[in-house]
Amino acid sequence: MKELEEFDKIIALSNELRWQIGDDFHDDLTEAIYADAAKIVKKTVVQNSQKGTLGIDAKIDNIVTSKIWGFPLMLFLLGFVLWLTIIGANYPSAMLSSLLLDIVHPFLKESTAAIGFPWWLSGFLVDGVYLAVAWVIAVMLPPMAIFFPLFTLLEDFGYLPRVAFNMDSLFKKSGAHGKQALTMSMGFGCNAAGVVATRIIDSPRERLIAIITNNFSLCNGRWPTQILLATIFIGAVVPESYSSIASLAAVVGIAVLGIFFMFFFSWALSKTVLKGEVSTFNLELPPYRTPVFWKTIYTSLIDRTLIVLWRAIVFAAPAGAVIWLICNITLGDESIAAYLVHSMDGFGFILGLNGVILLAYIVAIPANEIVIPTILMLTVMVTGISAGSGSGVMFELDSVSATADILKAGGWTLLTAINVMLFSLLHNPCSTTIYTIYQETKSLKWTVVASILPVIAGFIVTFLVAQIWRIIF
Amino acid sequence: MKTTPKSACETCAHHSLENVKKLGVDITNVDFVIALAGNPNTGKSTVFNALTGLRQHTGNWPGKTVTRAEGAFEYQQKKFKLIDLPGTYSLMSRSEDEEVARNFILFGKPNVTIIVVDASRLERNLNLTLQILEITSNAVLCLNLMDEAQKNNIQIDTRSLSKELGIPVVATSARSKEGIPELIATISDVALGKIICKPHKIKNIPPQLEQAIKKLSTAIQNQYPTVSNSRWLAFRVLEGDTHIIEALKTGDFS
Amino acid sequence: MNSYNPIIYLSVFFVLVVLLVLVFNTRNGVYFTYLKTKNATKKTAVEDILKLLYHNDRFTEADIIEQLEYSHGLIESCLLKMLSKQLIAKESHFVQLTDEGEEYALRIIRAHRLWEKYLSEKTGFHKKEWHDRAEQKEHELSDEELDQLAKLLGNPKFDPHGDPIPTKSGKIVQKKGTDLSRLPVHSIGKIIHIEDEPAAIYKEILAQKIHLHSQIKVIESNEQIVVFEAEGVVFKLTPVVAKNITVQELDPENILDVNNSRLSNLKINETATIIGISKESRGENRRRLLDLGFVKGAEVRINLVNPLNDPTAFLIKGTSIALRKDQSEKILITKNIGNENNT
Ligand SMILES: Nc1nc2c(ncn2[C@@H]2O[C@H](COP(=O)(O)OP(=O)(O)O)[C@@H](O)[C@H]2O)c(=O)[nH]1
Ligand SMILES: [Mg+2]
Q: In chain B, positions 207-246, which contact chain C (CB-CB < 8 Å)?
């Protein structure tokens, strides 16, 4: 008790002193420290001549922030990194999936049967859990293993802060920080990694904005969906010689639309719910440094790629189990999946989608990579056409035209494809990202906002497109 | 700062990394706890990696280490645990990183704090250094990025710098591991009490502020006789740092 | 599905959107109007009348009704209640505060100004929102909360507009000063207060980016216009606007270097020395700037110009640091003459 009294005395004394010294204390103290620092430096440091590597830095800076070269260089580098990622990932992805899906999967099926697992246990483990995990690895690992090291090399060189510098005034207009240009680009690789990267933004309001809007960057898991649908449906409406350009334009258009939504929601958030959060700005432009190449590659693989991949696997495994279960447990004479599909068909129709698509997006919350396989499997299941390898077993077809046939049999039109492309851009983040958002914000409220906001946007946009489309055509 | 004389052979051992065992993340049964503090982008993680053999992410980009990393190494049969703190410009604002770094130095009571500074930007880095020296007296200044300083034609008199600051100063280029053996030897000397630090205290404070600080720090010292940094606590209380005031109340400083 | 018609769906959607906008519009939406009327209790009205009377000596009941947005009936019943509680007294038609009433009024003013100070130091709300938010909050804060708040802020003496904050015991510092329109030509003064009411005039002052505590020099002053220079920028105001700015004439020994200017006015290849950070930079922003080395006496020059013109990177204490224009406007410098183009 006596101690608390003493404590109160100290506080009373400090209150009185604070009143006496006024509110410049922090200023005065900082000035005093810097004055000491200047004195010490004067005694101990000799600067021989002005120039050194600073001269080279200045030359690079003048190019990368110039009116003429600044923006083209940024676009070129981002485009190059994305192109290399998508193109470069094709081959290893195909190899991985033929290994994991065509060789290991049947092998596991046979061996579990040989040891005498009942059909439901091997179905649950091999067709459900294993298949989902294998899919995520095959689709996710190669692009991330290319994207992250490239990005990290740019970071280590010191180029990224210059991008933030160049872009800042665009982002400032929507209440965001220039560094969001980078977290957004990182989101093209993986939204969870993009959310982690927002740590570089040290202003609370702008960081929240960057976290909440990161999902509008079309991530690696969603590019393949876009490309597949654009190839099947958009490429088909134009003359054959233009089809690949048209489908490319459609995919890029979706990504650009995402950027537009990112700006829009940044602006809206900063003007409404987030306007009371503290907002500061600081951006240090560090000197250029040559990256230690192999070390950078190594740490970026360990730090970013494998961690994100691990999280994705942890979430995908139960998702695979759920998918298999809802397809194989029956209520009355229908499986749960079929029941859910039918009950959501009406709502799906209003949005220009269908029950299969909605269900696929619900069960595939853990990973966007398994949306298309799930859609195919469910379509086969509800239409009863013969393809795939049994209920609850996700699959994909090597031939694009065979995929197109299944989708069309499922009632897909050009409108369905466009709306799925839109919905793939505008829906809740995958569960890895949701979990990461919670980790980073430690706030249930912002996690919910970040998860719900894009779905609402998705519902509104697909609804409008569907109604207008049907009025016109 | 006092340095006890060393025998010739003791010193020669310092120049090789052979008697250093990198222990990675094995942080059980440690003898000493060492904190790594410094401005963003001065090479803290690089120093951390050089000492522990781990591969923490380093990047040329202020503000990427937010959570703290831990690792360990062994030197002359003593085990040292090392903590890589987030980089900060100061310990007096109230951002999340600063709180993590500040709380560790203050409450975690590391045996030695290594302050990693950029040799080409010494003045700016001294802002944080001088603040840390108000909090703790066992510190080593790691004058890193010496290779860049040389390229920029900057020369630093490490001996008089060490005299001014009252703590040992070791020049390093962490990326090429230059100076790391000396750094380890110095850390161990400070931890074992072979080197006694007499850290610099902030001087150029306007007189009437200095008076207020003195009054308050005396009051704090009387109430909590064991604290060694009552002056710094007075700074914080005068700024209304609620966290520190709360800690005083609950007696976290005894 | 047969009855499906996209036009109907679309119409329903738009009707819904319009309804939502009507209900939740922040300016005059149903929801917010409801909140406002709910808050317009007798207590609020009484406290607003007290404040009004504190600032205006010879006010009649009619004046009060004219100045406040409350209904006639509410004000009358409030006045009756206040009379019976001896917060006010009537002298012929004039309504005046009693000692007790003044104490109460000062408490509300303390709450208002402390809350404005809090908003300016600890949150990101824009300047133009402080007043309205404080108008609400002043009626809600309890004595205990006020003490907590004052402690948190370090018992500040002035609010962010330069108005004195009454102490708990009701002491209030008096500030001497004249309004800007009355400062003679060529004299040098310092802005000590910027009035935030009426909103329209305050908005104009904000738009011109006139900063509290800046040193000014009057260049021209007459019935039509007041022209003055502050921080290297020339401002032109109508006398009506100038009346809302309070200045204090400076003694010669307190006058800063008259060549002071804002960092945002620095040109490429010029070097300058920092004099200090304007009082308009507050809270976390101010601390950051100080931490980054923007302190008195530091040398600064432009390192990089942005392709889109904002932000600009400044070289300070050996490092290149980018600041947005609204930050560099709040850093004061004197340009170093004679060492241009020596790089
Ligand atoms: N040239 C040179 N570069 C270094 C040295 N130490 C660190 N770096 C580089 O400086 C950058 C920042 O290092 P990092 O350890 O991440 O700094 P931290 O932010 O303090 O943890 C990285 O690009 C390192 O490779 C050094 O001694 N010399
Ligand atoms: Mg680091």
A: 239-240, 242
Whether residue A147 has pLDDT greater than 70 = yes
Q: How many helices (H) and strands (E) does chain B have?
A: 10, 10
pLDDT, residue B106, reads 87
Spatial separation of the C-alpha atoms in residues A243 and C62, rounded to whole Å: 78
Query: In the structure encoding, which two tokens stand for residue A295, read together?
Result: 């070390």
Q: What is the mean pLDDT of chain B?
A: 85
Q: Per the structure block, which two tokens stand in for A239?
A: 């003359």
pLDDT band, residue C323 (cuts 50/70/90)? very high
By the CB < 8 Å criterion, does B90 face chain C?
Answer: yes
φ and ψ of C338, to 5 deg: 95, -10
Strand partners, C190: C215, C248
Nearest ligand 1 atom to the CA of B178 is: 27
The domain made up of C260-335 is a member of CATH 3.30.420.40:
no
Whether residue B124 and residue C293 make contact (CB cut-off 8 A), yes or no, is yes
Residues of chain C contacting residue A166, judged by C-beta atoms under 8 Å apart: 306-308
Domain ranges of chain B: 13-192, 207-250
Report the gap between the CA of B206 and the closest CA in chain A (Å).
7
Contact C283, B239 (CB under 8 A): no
pLDDT in tens, C110-137: 999 999 999 999 999 999 889 989 988 9
**Chains with 3 or more CB pairs closer than 8 angstroms to C?**
A, B
CA of C290 vs chain A CAs: smallest distance (Å): 7
Collect all residues with Cβ–Cβ distance below 8 Å to A173 and sequence separation of at least 6.
A267
User: And the tokens for A436?
Assistant: 């990461």
> What residue ranges do the domains of chain C occupy?
178-254, 260-335
In this prediction the pTM is 0.90
Its CATH class, for the domain covering C178-254, is mainly beta
Contact: A280, C155; criterion CB under 8 Å: no
What's the CATH code, domain B13-192? 3.40.50.300
